Protein 1
Amino acid sequence: MSAGFAVYRRWLRDRRLSTFSWTVGLIIMIVATAAFYPAFGSSAEAFVGGGSSAMNAVLGLGSGIDPGAPLGYLWIGLYANVLPWTLMALGVAVGSASIAGDEDTGTLEYLLAGPVTRTQVVISRFAAAITVLLVVSVLSGVSMAACLPAFQLADATTITLPDGTTSIAPGATVADIVNGTISSFAVALGLTGLAFLIGAVSGRKSWAIGGASAIGIGGYVLYTLSSMTSSLDALTWFSPWRWYVDDVMLINGLTPEVLIPFGTATVSLLVGWWVFLHRDLQTS
Amino acid sequence: MPAAIETNGLTKQWGDLRAVDELDLVVPPGECYAFLGRNGSGKSTTARMLLDFIRPTAGTATVLGGLGSDPAIRARVGYLPGDLNLPRRMSGHEAFEYFGRFRNLADTTVRDSLIERFGLDPSRPVNELSTGNRRKVGLILAFMGSPELLILDEPTSGLDPVLQEEFRDLLAERKAGGATIWLTSHVMAEVARVADRIGMIDDGKLIREMTFEDLRHQATTEIILGFDRAVSPDEFAGVASVTGVEIDGDDVRLSIRGPVAEILTRAGELGAVRIETEQHDLDAIFIDLLGGAES
């Protein structure tokens, strides 16, 4: 077994319990949200067209999204906010822990006293952080897919529009959930990469958590405010919410923008690796 | 054969602080070199540069003829940090397995004998162990691969006197087996039995290097002579081996270095009624030397 794989496996092993806890928590949230759909359907009309542009942005209620339809419900109830936020929080936690967390506690130094290179540590830890995020994301998607038939979310629904006409909204499919899961994973992946980058550059976990959280929350606030005034629009270019909420990939399918966080994570890995290779380890 | 450790002008500076200042050091293979200095004098910083945890501001450091960043070199080095930090919940046994795997240590004979020798329970998580037991884990990790070079930062810190003795025995065995040992300490007596040579560092500078034999010769002995009358210091002027005279009532305190025959003859001539000897221990010498460096 290579040294890199041993580091990767050990890091995952040390996070078995926390990964399990995140997964269980997320699944409970998913099941609870799905289970509420049959009761929600009748009161969905209250949501349509009643909110301000900022409130709609917060809820992810873009044009053509009907909260009474299965996909619309899942979007505003889970995929527009709760799921990506949860995955982003997990991403920041594992991204900041991968290098900076162990450097803060001094455990990284002892690991590097052995025949392990810094490059092996960077790659294996980054891969391990992404693995945790991927496992939790996939399990959330699987649990969501399992909930579809159980809570009428797979069924087509008749929607009454504001003008009194009716239309048939399709039920949610596994393919929709795959799209939603990939886009949620992607938005969290970008922030995971940034948390990793700040940690690899600074060696300080608190900086990594603070910096990545500031980017995530700041991007969200700016995006929400930009729905009220176009003058802020230019500032939202770095916000992952801009493409995530606008594109609504759960409903509309994947768009090329989903690749942006993969690019962010790759660049973060390369820059973090290079800086980590050339800097001093912090003392614990 | 290259030196086990060699530094040339090794310097580490953080802002205005020069933690290590142009350190020139050569430790030949098979030697036990004790790097002594007070807390914050630059010992651990030097160790961390040797293993490439931090990079020198200037100068070079080689370990076993290569760079500390080379994993092939580090595979031949056993390291005990001043403060051992292992992942939370990792037990001693897991630590031995995990870190042993990097060195392909399939044979656990040495490891198991060390566990028995130090009386360690390896099943408990390291973060639940006492300071002394964590130290044992660190020592076993450092020694279990029978490395060619041991870099030990304050190795006996936290060990009780019995285990300190056990550690010194172990060090002597490894030295006899050909290992090179570089250890830091701020307690000279701790390294007295095992070190061939010492280097003293203060404020990042290597202020003195000497063999332990040289050091012992520097040890000043004092003889206290009791009289039933007051004696003048001049009575000992020109007496061989006397390096200092102090009068304390009817007692005369002589600092000596060398043979004492002439002193005893003079004491008899002056009618001394009592004689006591007192030898400065190694730590007192350590303090003297560092005091001298400050002045």
Protein 2
Amino acid sequence: MSCANIQVSETPLVLYTLRRADDALILGHRLSEWCGHAPMLEEDMALSNIALDLIGQARELYSYAAKVEGKDNDEDKFAYLRDVRQYRNLLLVEQPNGDFAQTLVRQFFYSAFADLYWRAMMSSRDTTLAAIAAKSEKESAYHLRHASEWIIRLGDGTDESHRRAQGAIDHLWAFTGEMFSVDDGERALIQAGIAIDPASLRARWLTTLSDVAGEATLELPRNEWMQQGGRFGRHSEHLGHLLSELQSMQRTFPGLTW
Amino acid sequence: MATPNTPLWEVFIRSRNGLAHKHVGSLHANDATMALQAARDIYTRRGEGLSIWVVPSSAITASDPAEKGMMFEPAESKIYRHPTFYEVPEEVGHM
């Protein structure tokens, strides 16, 4: 194994699978950055548990992408030997942890989507994706509950926690639109019954957000303008820094194993 | 930070084949819902349980260790209270 970037043949199904794998890996890595630093021991464990769930999802999706691609790639190569422009994750999940409220709002936005997404994907015609969905759905359901309870307490807590939670919502809102957009390749997978149309989930996603925000005395922004680009490799400056840490061992010692 | 204002909770888990909830430890959380979540995250990571109870530590009334002579020694000399003098039939199961 060298430390040079791999080439990936991004057929629609490979690309579709890699995008979801990258979401899970990058968000999992972000959460793992809290390990040893969370505000309390209990949350340190909770965030690490969620990180491990997501990295587990990423592994299954990468393995499947490798199988579909049928080349020399595997889960490790996808994770360690692709550069920023080859990553296909949502901009939302690469956003820095910020404070505790920002981490939880990011998690809340993503998990509220992932919970609906995986549940719908359980009926995918692709049996592997359907099986991954069945496992991931239970994990995402808990991630959503965990984040929701925190959003309610941060929003309806002290002036300080309310201010921070509302600030995080306003800041991250523009990154949520990307979850619901599809390109032509995905459109074809949707028509084939392999993927589901994320736009069909948006109304329920908004209901979840409104219910929790209402209880939390927080307000959802009304602006419609949304950031795009992550799905096509156009990332914020934050992802490069994240990858330099995530990939440092394999880039420095190619083929290193435990 | 888990300040002194964050209440302490005692956690009880019933294992897969267990018949009763057993005390497994304690944690800090601001309310019962969060305590239950934290208990799940801390104490059931390796499939330890199928049911969780959390109880505010302040709700527990404990015996005084200084009184253990009065409380527990009188029972030590009464071995006839142990059901060791007869066989328990197999069909009775757990007692």
